[in-house]
Sequence to fold (856 residues):
Amino acid sequence: MERQPTGPAAAPALVGEAERVSKSFGETAALVDVTLNVQAGEVHGLVGRNGAGKSTLVSLLTGLSRPDRGTIRLAGEPAPALADRVAWLARVACVYQRSMVVPPLTVAENVFLNRPTGGGGAIVDWRRMRAEARELMLEWGFDVDVDHEAGTLTVEQRQIVEIARALSIGARFLILDEPTAALEKAAVERLFERVRRMREGGVGVLYISHHLEEIYEICDRVSVLRDGEQVLSGRVADVPQAQLVAAMVGSAPPRRATQIEAATDRGQAGDVRLEVRSLVVASRAGSVDDVSLSVRAGECLGLVGLDGSGTATVADAIVGMVKPRSGGITVNGSAARAGRVDAAWRRGVGYVPQDRHARGFSPQLGVAENLTLGVLDRVARRFGLVSASARDAIARRQVEQLQIVARSLDQPVSSLSGGNQQKVVVGRALAPDPSVLVAINPTVGVDVASKEALLDALGRARDQGVAVLLVSDDFEDLRICTRLVVMVRGKVAAEFDRPPWDRQRLIAAVEGLEVAV
Amino acid sequence: MAERAVERKATPAAPRRDMRLVVVKWFRELTLVPVIVVLMIAGAVVNPVFFTPSNLINVAEGGAALGMVVVAESLILLTGKFDISLQGTFGLAALLGAWLIAPKASEGLGTEWSPWIGLLIVLLVGLAVGTFNGLLVIKANFNAFIFTLAMSILLTGLQLGWLGGQTVYNLPEAYIYIGAESWFGIPVSVWITVVTFVVAALFLRYHRIGRAMYAIGGNLEAARSAGIQVDRIRIGVFMAASVLAAIGGLMQAGRVTAVTAGQGSNLIFGVFAAAVIGGISLEGGRGRMVGALTGVILLSLVTNILTLSNISSTWIDAVDGGIILIALGLAKLIGTESA
Fold:
């Protein structure tokens, strides 16, 4: 495996290039005039905050959508027609965060998915398939048993299977979309080893990551997208970290220039209401490794981190949605019962789950019923019969507080707008007058007005003495926080004690860069 | 017009009940009523006997035992699971009770215990099977379909094997009372089933656990994250359902004053059909008891009319299945069948 000769005179072979591509979705311009190329034998880093246009660029480069303007070229040739999936797969492959292996099939079958190796026929030649898969693994130095069932593989091994599939089809342009998000430290090192090996073998890699230190470790060049525009591109060695972060953050509108508007002096915080000690949780959604924190009455602690950093898992463990492996959780002075959500609610913990559709509401039930799901014991009278007037009284209070727009208290929540659905979920958590409120991304995917109403309601709860734990990756949510804890890869990476927060330092901490405190 | 209504903010003065929603819901529940009317006219045309009081009582009595199991299955369906073995419980519970109280001469064990103990045993068998199913399907997370199917085969097999295919007869009066006696000219079983439907409907509408059941069936994770004890409630529903099925079996036994080895066989298909035609969603969380009741009435009418008609008895099953399919299609068209 010799590195292909690229003399200074010879133009480097390009495995993939986007030339002045633009793409809009309705009114929103997702990409504007972006030019980016990946050479054979190169790792090209692509960074940008959520919504910067990375996914759109990937979908253009992998043929999932067509640019409005500009051209895509693969392996030096114009991109095939969108419908010709086979041609695309032979030139480019993207390994997404979400695994695309078929669990019940073996590794070999997954590698040769939909490509029976029986000499052109439809009959599967098992022996040959296994042999070819084994050979492929050997060639690239991958260490996975090809007879293994894919469902039992680790995240790292599944990734290998997907990479092997792409390479076996012949693709020499590989897009890795946040490949380290779910990997441990040692696995990350092994991944880098494999990436270097592929680079040696002439593969061009587009490496997307939130973790900037990885860019410096593995990439040759880096490009930064911000609001759909390419704001920086160059050799990694020539781009200092500060410049990279500055390019990602940009100069924000004046209202939140460098500082995030935050709750000013909150006065004296009260007693410790929620305490988490040395929490360890194993979870697909992001494991937690030895996290301790506490929240006092009248305080709003912002728990900030990327998707998969373990912030949401901490919150889920507190309310009992997941069972911790070890560590202690204390609510109002008494130990929480692991894995018992009902016990948490009885102790006065309100919960706004991460995904409103999956966990937030019962779609066919009305607004009032959903708002009072957590307080059925309070609205029930003799023999457990629900008093409609008691229920509606509680519901109406939340409808007013959160400005929920609904035809009536009976309107099914499924027919409300996203913002109003989310208000119902938050109202459900506030209805019992909790002493501790745990909220995960409470304003995700809602309109500006709803966002204001939701944050105001949470801020009011804090002012009334509720201990609020706010998990969020949206910096605008942090304006109601009085203190911040940043998590990276399951561990507490930084703490910010006093508002206002420095936007730049906060981003650097969230992205996993060292911060001088 | 609707747009404007949505725009309006819900103020404290906003109407508490949305009459339009209420009307739509009731309309959905009662869509089978016209079908039932058509069937009754057809019944009258097929055979003048149809509209005699004794035949109509016969229809009701036939539907009573089925109705108990439909209530049971509907409760489980609403919480997002189902139980095929209710038909096994329907047969085995009644059989065990009867076996322990009937004299040896009529295929009993010969212990000839008091019929009251027999009744208690019927309920206990229901409770035991329900607890077992509930624990294994909910706690041990067995697939409800395959697990309760296996249970159904097991229970029916026990029922057949126990007596070597014989029928237990000559049962004491207290044991067959609810299946054989009448109050004010209407069979006790019909009274009980109607009351069960009403109580179940009110429970689902007004009791906190009833409301929690809808929440669980609509979105299990949402219910769990709201602090509802989802496992406890779902297991409880399995238990209650099996007890109801056992009582249904007792009605059937009383009606024919015997327990056959085949009691309950193939009952479950009619049960599912009645529930689904009546608007109980197989996905959980949707449907009401009123609808399920109309489903039971419809199926009982079909069975009765087919019996009264001149259709050869060997063809009755085929026609029965065809009519169920047509009813399902109608329900789909009108929108009651939301599964």
Q: What stands out?
A: The interface with chain A takes residues 5-12, 14-18, 21-22, 206-209, 211-212, 214-215, 218-219, 221-229, 285-286 of chain B (CB under 8 Å). Residues 1-15 of chain B have pLDDT under 50 and may be disordered.
